[in-house]
From TrEMBL:
Species assigned in the record: Arthrobacter echini
Gene Ontology annotations of biological process type: gluconeogenesis; glyceraldehyde-3-phosphate biosynthetic process; glycerol catabolic process; glycolytic process
Annotated catalytic residues: 103, 175
Gene Ontology CC: cytosol
Protein name: Triosephosphate isomerase
Chain's gene name: tpiA
Cited Gene3D superfamilies: Aldolase class I
Annotated Pfam families: TIM (PF00121)
Main function: Involved in the gluconeogenesis. Catalyzes stereospecifically the conversion of dihydroxyacetone phosphate (DHAP) to D-glyceraldehyde-3-phosphate (G3P).
Subunit comment: Homodimer.
Length: 263
């Protein structure tokens, strides 16, 4: 069996400037320390805006905090005439561990296609970053009952061209769009249904491409209106290996109690 250490990831979105971000992170580190948080059991990661990352690096590395961090997006390119874009190379220099790729807000507001998302996944690996590939269906697709098919198609195109080792390292976050920032949380059984379908697809449909243990190693997260009150029941599901938290990651006490879901 493989150790799929639970990952609790906080997506700050466009909140907390570089000063607020540092204050927040210090408080979070103290709160987790006080609560006796054990990083060997549960991994904690935050996703601040780009402009916070240098400050976050200085704090996390300088004070050896047991918190890792990543960016909310990256360019599919490495360098050149791409005004406003951020290279994975720059994120690696700031010692980011992870990078979100294909978040539904990027897919919707910036019209990111599956093809672009796949190029970003490859760009992340080129620079030693672990991509968190975000997938999930909108309300209409859910109501039509084709949510599994839709989400698996996003997964397949997201992982196209990767090696087994890369797929096993990758994190996939299932975030039904209708549950993001809406207070509408999918039930633990919905989270389990999709995570099990994703793991099953990697095990079965992609078995010709990927090594046998890939499906057992890959970490699958649920995201969409996760709070302290519902985190434990979602994280108890067999194929759910963590949560991606938006709104509730901006409150130190709330986020810390999600991290302490085992209690
Ligand atoms: C997210 O942005 O990934 C998210 C899940 O947001 P929220 O928790 O606010 O629904």
């Amino acid at each position: 069996t493989f150790d799929r250490r639970p990952l609790i990831a906080g997506n700050w979105k466009m909140n907390l400037d570089h000063m607020q971000g540092i204050t927040f992170l210090q408080k979070l580190a103290w709160t987790l320390d006080d609560a006796g948080h054990d990083p060997a059991r549960v991994e904690v990661s935050v996703f601040p805006p780009f402009t916070d990352l240098r400050g976050v690096q200085t704090l996390v590395k300088g004070d050896s905090l047991d918190i890792v961090y990543g960016a909310q997006d990256l360019s599919p390119e490495d360098s050149g005439a791409y005004t406003g874009d951020i290279s994975g190379q720059f994120l690696a220099r700031l010692e980011c561990s992870y990078v979100l790729v294909g978040h539904s807000e990027r897919r919707t507001l910036h019209r990111e296609s599956d093809e672009l998302v796949n190029r970003k996944v490859h760009a992340a690996f080129r620079h030693g970053l672990v991509p968190i590939l975000c997938v999930g269906e909108g309300l209409e697709i859910r109501q039509a009952g084709s949510h599994v098919e839709h989400t698996l198609a996003q997964v397949r195109s997201g992982v196209a061209g990767l090696s087994s080792e890369q797929v096993a390292t990758l994190v996939i976050a299932y975030e039904p769009v209708w549950a993001i920032g809406t207070g509408e949380v999918a039930g633990p059984e919905d989270a389990q249904e999709m995570c099990s379908a994703i793991r099953g697809a990697i095990r079965a449909e992609l078995e010709a491409l990927f090594a046998a243990d890939t499906a057992a190693r890959i970490r699958l997260l649920y995201g969409g209106s996760v709070k302290a009150a519902n985190a434990a029941s979602i994280l108890r599901e067999r194929d759910v290996d963590g949560v991606l938290v938006g709104g509730a990651s901006l409150d130190v006490a709330e986020f810390a109690s999600i991290v302490r879901f085992e209690e």
